[in-house]
Specification:
This is (2Fe-2S) ferredoxin domain-containing protein. This protein has three helices and six strands. It is an alpha+beta fold. α1 packs across α3.
Length: 106
């Protein structure tokens, strides 16, 4: 059975940073070879999807970055910038470690 993990990235900022974050995440998934992987004997695909609003602006502190949610676990990150993509892909998706400095409650 194949499982799909999704990263939903908010693109509702005036700066357009959400689009840049989504592009950076997609690029890192390819670079790190984690777009398709085998976890615990299960095939896993990772998809990055943009959306208009995640309703996380208050928790995100309206910083210069974007909000994103990783599913199926539901981990929310705020104020994410394109430069954070490498760490999110390597640590969260690759090793299963939540990135505490970006994590927000929702």
């Amino acid at each position: 059975m194949s499982e799909v993990r999704r990263l939903f990235v908010c693109t509702n900022q005036k700066s357009g940073v959400g689009e840049d974050v989504a592009k950076a995440l997609k690029k890192e998934l390819k670079i790190q070879g984690l777009k398709k992987l085998l976890t615990g004997g299960e095939k896993q695909r990772v998809r990055v999807q943009t959306c208009n609003c995640l309703d996380l602006c208050k928790q995100c502190k309206k910083g210069a970055g974007a909000a994103l949610i990783v599913y199926p676990e539901g981990t929310a990150y705020g104020n994410v910038r394109p430069g954070d993509a490498t760490e999110i892909v390597a640590e969260h998706l690759g090793r299963g470690h939540v990135i505490k400095r970006l994590r927000i409650d929702h």
